[in-house]
Structure formats: C-alpha cells, structure tokens
Design a protein that fits this description.
By secondary structure, this protein is of the alpha+beta class. It folds into 2 domains: about 50-105; about 110-205. Helix content is about 70%, strand content about 10%. It has helices at about 10-25, 75-105, 110-155, 160-205; strands at about 30-35, 40, 55, 65. Residues about 15-25 have low confidence and may be disordered.
Length: about 210
C-alpha cells in the first residue's frame, strides 16, 4: 500500500493501522498464581502481588521475565547461612585435597610410614627405659630412707627433719616418675593409632577407585 499522494485522512488512517498492532504487541501482561492455585492475567500487577512470584509476558504471550517471590528476612538469613556452610565445606575439601597430595609426596610407600613410626617408637622406648631406671634408683633410696626412719622409731627417738624430708621427696619423686611413665605409654599408644590411620589413609588414596 502506497502512502504517497492521495487523501491526507487516508494516509493518517493507514499510519494508525500500522502503529496500533505494534503498540499492542509491546504491551506487557502479568501472570501469577494465587494461593488457591488459580492463574491470573492482567496488564497491571496488583500491589499485593508485587512481592510474590509472577511472570511478565510480552504481547505475543512469551515470557519476558520470571520474578521470584521476595524472601522474608528469616529466609534470607537461612539462605546466607546455607551459602556460608557450603563455602566452608568447599574450602575444607580443597585443603583436604592439598593435604592428601602433600601426604603422598612425603610418604610414597607404606614402608616410609613404618620407618617414621618405628623411629617414634624407639625414642619413646628409650625414654621409657631411662625412667624405669630412675624409678628403681628412687625406690631404692626411698626404701633406705624409710628403713633409717624406722630405726629411729624403734629406738624411741624422733626421726630427724632432714630424713623426713628425704622420705617425702623420694615419695613425691616416685609419683612424678610413674606419671611420666604413664604419659610415655599413652604416647606410644597414640603413635600406634596414628600409624594405623596413616596406613589406612595411604591405601585409600592409592586405591584405583
């Protein structure tokens, strides 16, 4: 259809016929679902639905934009907490993978783990033996002091203060040495537990699956 020449009114009518469909196609339509599950369409979104989930459609019926429901403060806080936990877990996994690589680089074989554990065992056992010897020496000194104190008492004499102090010191020393002996036995048990865990970890990391 030519618009050149002719009646001016006809030209204006022709232009309006061209513009009106374009304007209609450019108008947005809103679609939402109410609490009862009913679907609604409107060219104007009701104020009470502005914070709810809805779609904005083009004049051709295509979805131009999908808008989620606005979350409450509690929901936002829960989402932020979930995201924080996920970020922490991701970081833990990254660090664990890095530590596993370093572990395998430091101990390529199980024999390397055994060598480390054996060195720890020998150190503890050496300390254990030294303390046992000190216990025997202290026990012997304690027995001697007690016997001397008993001799004074058999004679009806007061036990000298220095001897009483020696007996008390020897008793305290024996208690301390036995505590140290128990600590060493605990350390040895921890070495064995750590070694077993390291072997299990090594096998898990080396397994094909």
């Amino acid at each position: 259809m030519s618009l050149a020449g002719g009646d001016p009114m006809k030209r204006m009518l022709a232009l309006l016929l061209l513009v009106v469909p374009l304007t209609a196609a450019a108008q947005s339509v809103y679609r939402w679902v109410d609490e009862d599950g009913n679907v609604h369409y409107s060219q104007a979104l009701p104020p009470e639905q502005a914070r709810g989930a809805h779609d904005r459609l083009t004049g051709s019926g295509l979805v131009a934009e999908s808008i989620d429901r606005v979350r409450t403060d509690e929901e936002r806080a829960q989402l932020e907490e979930l995201e924080r936990q996920q970020a922490e877990e991701t970081e833990r996994q990254r660090l664990r993978a890095q530590q596993d690589r370093l572990f395998l680089a430091s101990f390529p074989t199980e024999q390397d783990l055994e060598r480390i554990a054996q060195a720890q065992r020998e150190t503890i056992e050496s300390e254990h033996e030294s303390i046992k010897q000190l216990i025997e020496q202290t026990r012997s000194r304690f027995s001697t002091n007690v016997e001397q104190a008993a001799e004074y008492e058999r004679r009806g004499e007061a036990v000298p203060a220095y001897l009483q102090q020696q007996v008390a010191n020897a008793r305290t020393r024996l208690l301390e040495l036995n505590r140290q002996l128990g600590d060493l036995e605990q350390r040895l048990a921890e070495v064995e537990a750590e070694h077993a865990a390291n072997v299990e970890r090594h096998r898990r990391l080396r397994s094909p699956g």
